[in-house]
Task: inverse folding
């Protein structure tokens, strides 16, 4: 049962759990934000869909041997997770070039990478989540070389599993963001969420955007799109 | 003997050499530029000092077992080098936090790193030399994992040697930039220049700037400062 509200983020509320010192309840909100919070809108039903999708993906990954903070869904918008100390690194995996990458480095929009690119960003809103290399990440977060290698290896494995999963629902996984955290014993597990808010998803054949870019660029109704993703996942991805 | 002018950069002119297919003559110019060419000034005598200092450093490094493009100085402002295909990566090594790093990542100005940080920037003026990680560098330049490791290892070794050298002349090596290129046979060697234009140098005790920041920030006469560096080097660093 929910106890105190510990933190309210841009997409989720974080609650402590009565009688469970090392667990949290994440409540997915209907808020959508972009451009580091500059753009903001409420989409009724988004919280439910992201909770359902994220839970489904964590269960799918669990079956593939990828440990995470996820314990179980509690309601339409809530899930029970293990509390972690989030490592302030956003790990981004890219399969196809788009967005900031093409502008910063002059890489052609839509280029498919032979090997996925793994990037680290410093999770620090005040600095606008700047790109880091491994040396920066180790210096800033105190993470060890081996732990960083583990995280990047996990990110590549997760990418393989998610690509296979999205393939089943006719969607290309363009890129996505992960967060990792430390459990009570110091070990590192996948945390936070994996949802259309944190992935770029393009429909096979049409390249129609099926993710938060729909909101960033005011293309279509976000909830309808997320609902399509969820329906296809429920039907074709069994966990 | 100089043959055709092949390229004129911001700090040097590059000439082919009569009868020597795999060699070049680099002529150091008196031009100082900063902020990606926005600021520009001529300092009479700078070309000579950078040629002398760079030659001295390449010889010093050669004695420490670091191969480079350097063959010999030809005149006050010219040096003979092996032609390389420059890899478009600027390798930066940082011992003390200053400049862009402190702004981008919120690291405290003046912080001394336990382990030097090695950074890669994409040498591409049109993009303003953006920061890259290893995956970006491999994708953009086609360099292999092993070659990249070699370059970073060389950069760390060069840092150790240069720190020891600057220590002899009462100067702290704050950070510096290296370029590497491929010889005719494909092997990778240190190229370009190592001079007060490409290093941040702070005087021991006083932290007085003794490098191109003198020009960037209009602090003092640049030629006088570079001359001090050269005089101290000539006297105390024997090659
Ligand atoms: N298992 C967990 N334990 C502790 N914190 C977590 C866990 N999973 C996610 N978080 C954190 O919960 C916070 C709320 O999520 P969110 O609304 O997405 O925040 P933000 O605005 O930082 O993106 C984030 O700081 C996220 O890193
Ligand atoms: N051994 C070498 N062979 C070929 N090119 C070189 C060599 N050493 C340096 N260069 C290149 O010479 C050019 C001229 O130098 P510089 O004036 O510093 O140019 P920039 O304006 O690009 O900094 C640069 O592109 C540099 O990378
Ligand atoms: Mg978030
Ligand atoms: Mg140069």
Result:
């Amino acid at each position: 049962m929910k106890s105190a509200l510990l933190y309210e983020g841009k997409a989720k509320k974080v609650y402590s759990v009565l009688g469970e010192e090392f667990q949290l309840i994440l409540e997915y909100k209907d808020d959508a934000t972009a451009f580091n919070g500059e753009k903001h809108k409420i989409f009724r039903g988004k919280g439910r869909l992201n909770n359902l999708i994220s839970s489904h993906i964590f269960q799918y990954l669990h079956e593939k041997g990828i440990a995470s903070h996820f314990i179980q869904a509690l309601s339409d918008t809530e899930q029970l997770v293990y509390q972690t100390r989030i490592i302030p690194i956003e790990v981004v995996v890219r399969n196809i070039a788009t967005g900031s990458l093409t502008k910063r480095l002059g890489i052609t929009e839509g280029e498919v990478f032979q090997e996925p690119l793994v990037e680290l960003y410093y999770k620090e809103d005040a600095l606008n989540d700047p790109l880091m290399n491994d040396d920066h990440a180790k210096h800033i977060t105190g993470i060890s070389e081996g732990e960083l290698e583990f995280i990047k290896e996990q990110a590549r494995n997760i990418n393989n599993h998610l690509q296979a999963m999205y393939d089943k629902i006719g969607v290309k996984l363009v890129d996505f963001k992960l967060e990792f955290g430390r459990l009570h014993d110091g070990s590192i597990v996948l945390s936070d969420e994996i949802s259309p808010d944190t992935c770029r998803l393009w429909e096979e054949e049409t390249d129609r955007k099926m993710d938060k870019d729909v909101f960033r660029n005011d293309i279509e109704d976000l909830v309808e799109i997320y609902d399509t993703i969820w329906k296809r996942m429920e039907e074709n991805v069994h966990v």
Observations:
- The pocket of magnesium ion (ligand 3) is lined by residues A 9-11 (CB under 6 Å).
- The interface with chain A takes residues 104-107, 113, 115, 117-120, 122, 124, 126-127, 130-136, 138-140 of chain B (CB under 8 Å).
